Structures are given as structure tokens and as C-alpha cells.
Amino acid sequence: MTETAHIILKSGKDQSLMRYHPWVFSGAIKKTKGSFEEGDVVKVYNNKDQFLGLGHYQPGTIAVRILSFVDRPVDQSFWKEKFRQAVDLRDKLGLTDSRQTNVYRLINAEGDGLPGLVVDYYNGTAVMQAHSVGMYLLRETFAELLREIMGRRLQSVYNKSAATLPHKADVERQDGYLLGVSPEQTVKENGLSFRVNWSEGQKTGFYIDQRENRRLVQSYARDADVLNLFGYTGGFSVYAAAGGSRSVVSLDSSRLASEMAEENMKLNFGDKIAHEVISRDAFDYLREGQRQFDLVVVDPPAFAKHYNVLPNAIQGYKKLNRLAIEKTRPGGVIFTFSCSQVMSRENFRKMAFTASANTGRQVRILGQMSQPPDHPVSIYHPEGEYLKGLVLQVLD
Fold it and tell me: Contact, 387 vs 343, CB < 8 A?
């Protein structure tokens, strides 16, 4: 890349960057100056030759992910400052020295001013996921920075970016340890124990963003028959049992996830909890089953990752929540979620309204949920608030 590699935007396409939104879309680009490749740092200017920001270039809909709105060198000191700010926030949140919780989000992409990079911390192991080539090419530098900043708290760094890099990225994809070696291990969250498999599991191994929502489920679970749909490794199931549930059903289509859910329940409670594991499609189970529940958790994978499939995704959410409402006893509670970034809070709430109306039952909202503070959201990047949830009570 030359030092003069620039991207110039079309007239009127600079407004989002002037409001500090961290993405430049390909359709906003008028022309380029200099030569650059995917992963290079480029400078972005408006049509009046005013500097707007600098960031990693990648071909595709999102052409530049802005790293800084100030014209400055993107060097070792730049990255160290960004990483230090991210770790300092988790220090202030009391996560880095907690005896009750040793798993948390350490770097949250745009929310920490590091678009394209996610790092989760698992009791001494940092699991890194790069969503852009620019971040991926720096993975070894980042591993060393993490070790320098975190010191004894960090024993190993695992790269898990093979599945998260852009599909057409021209780089060699390979997951593996960048520093140290640590077998998949047991972590603690709010005093409860979980086995985590970051090499084979979904995301980085555990859905850390549901930590506070799991604790809320615990507070509703006493004497309840609980159904945990899309239960993965049993996070909500363990919390429900800790809250004094009468029985728990963990359902997931993945047999591996179901086996880990059973293992996590036994890890915390031995054989003292009435727990049933079912490996099956959630829609089929709800349609064909007759059993009723007092508490239902509906936490599906993202039905929509792009706006062009959002209408179909909303129909899927409606169908799923209607079935869940029908399987809930009078007075029972539903925790329903969407992790689709393109699903707005307004659309999610409208979906819940329609699903409820289609059952003809009386339903009210007891609470609204989001992601915890170690998953910060830039106020200029509302897309970062991807997790939204509702606590619904079925009255009759």
C-alpha cells in the first residue's frame, strides 16, 4: 500500500462518517487514489477533499471499517492504546478479577473501536475471531499485545477466524493457538460452572452475551417446568435449575451440543435435577408435542443476517413464538430473543405482538433485555445492539 492510498466518497455520502458511523459502503465510493489490497489501511475523504477517517479496506458491501476518525499512524502504539482501553473497561466492570465469573467479552468490535475484531476470555484463554482480513493479518501482533497487557491473567490465545472471515478473502484460513496451549476447560459464570469447547463449539464456544439474561431466568424459575429451546450447551437450563425449577427440558438439533448440556447440568448438580435432553428440530417439537411448560426460553440462531431476508425471518420468528405461547401454561413466562442484527427492536416487538394475537391469548410484557456492558455499543453504530429480548407473561 502506498502512503497516498485514498478513497474519495460521492457528494453527499459523507454524512454518516461525519456522525462517526464506522462503515463505508461500496456504493458511496466515487474514486480511489493509489494502490491498495484487501486488509490495507486506507484514508477516506469526502468530495471536498476533507479527511473523514481511516480504516481497513475490504471488497464487498462494507468497503472500509473505520479505525479512527483522526488522521494518525496506525502503528503498535495505536493498537496498544485501543486494547488497553478495552481491558480497562472490563476492569471497571469488575470482570477481570471476579471469583464468580471468569468468562467475558474482552473486545467487542465496533463497540470498542476495533471493527472486525472480537475477543472472548475464558479463564486464562483468549479466543480471537477476525471478521476482516485487516484484523486477521494482525492476529499474532494482537496475541502479543494481549499477553503484554493482561500479564499473568492470560495463558494462551486461540485464533478461531476460519469461519468468520469474508467468504472470498484471499488468505490462508487456519484456526489454532497463537500463544500457549490450553485444553477446553471449565469456566465460571455467576458462580455456576460450564465446560467450553472453543475449537468445535459455536461462536467462540459459549454465548457470553446472555450472561445477565440467564441470571434473570434463574429468578423466574422456582417450581417451574422449563423448556429451553435451541438450548445449545445448556446455559439457560443450568440457571433455571439453580433457580429451583421443578424440571428442565433442553432441546437442540445438535447432538454434540445436547451432550454438553447434559454434562453441564451434571457438573453443577450431579443427578439431583430432573433434566431431559432432546436432540430435535424445535419447530417439529412444538408442533407435535402436547406438553405444557411454566417457563419457555426461545433463543434461536440469527434467522436474518441480511436485510433482503428479513421479511422471511420475521415470519419464522412469528411462527416460533406463536408455538411457544401455545405451549405455555396460564401465568407462565416466555423469554424470547433475536440475535439478528438487522432485526430492530421495533420489528421484534411487532413480531411478538402478532404472534401473541394469533394465539388469541392475553399476553403482557414484563421486561426487555439486551446484551451486557462487556458487549458495548457505539451510540453512532446502532447495528451493534444486535441482541434484543422480551420477557412475556401468558395470562390465560
Answer: no
* Catalytic residue (choose from 227, 339, 355, 390): 339
Helices and strands in the chain, H and E counts:
10, 20
The reply to whether 339 belongs to the active site is: yes
Q: Which residue ranges form the domains of the chain, and what is each CATH number?
A: 6-68 (2.30.130.10), 76-186 (3.30.750.80), 207-394 (3.40.50.150)
User: What is the SS3 assignment for 269?
Assistant: helix
Residue 52 and residue 16 in contact, taking contact as beta carbons nearer than 8 Å = no
pLDDT at residue 1 greater than cutoff 50 = no
> What CA–CA distance (Å, rounded) separates 137 from 190?
35
238, 194 Cβ separation under 8 angstroms: yes
Q: Are 218 and 243 within 8 A, CB to CB?
A: yes
* CA distances in angstroms from 36 to 39, 135, 252, listed in the order given: 8, 16, 45
Answer yes or no: are the C-beta atoms of 356 and 363 closer than 8 Å. yes
Residue 286 CB contacts under 8 Å (≥ 6 apart), including other chains: 229, 320, 323, 324, 326, 327
C-alpha cell at 71: 488522521
- Residue 84, pLDDT above cutoff 70: yes
Rounded distance between C-alpha atoms, residue 396 and residue 377, angstroms: 37
Cell numbers 475523504: residue: 45
CA torsion sign for 191, 195, 196, 201 is: negative
Going by C-beta distance under 8 Å and a sequence separation of 6 or more, which residues neighbour residue 257?
201, 202, 231, 232, 233
Residue 24's SS3 state is strand
**Which tens digit of pLDDT belongs to each residue from 150-177?**
999 999 999 999 999 998 888 999 999 9
Give the chain's mean pLDDT.
94
CB atoms within 10 A of CB 134: 24
Which amino acid belongs to residue 231? G
Grade residue 112 by pLDDT with cuts at 50, 70 and 90. very high
Please, are residues 295 and 232 in contact by the beta-carbon 8 Å criterion?
A: no
The DSSP element (H or E) to which 66 belongs, if any, is: strand 62-68
Amino acid at residue number 69: F
Report DSSP state, residue 151.
G
Contact 159, 178 (CB under 8 A): yes
| CA torsion angle 191 196 198 202 (round to 10) | -100
Cell numbers found for residue 395: 395470562
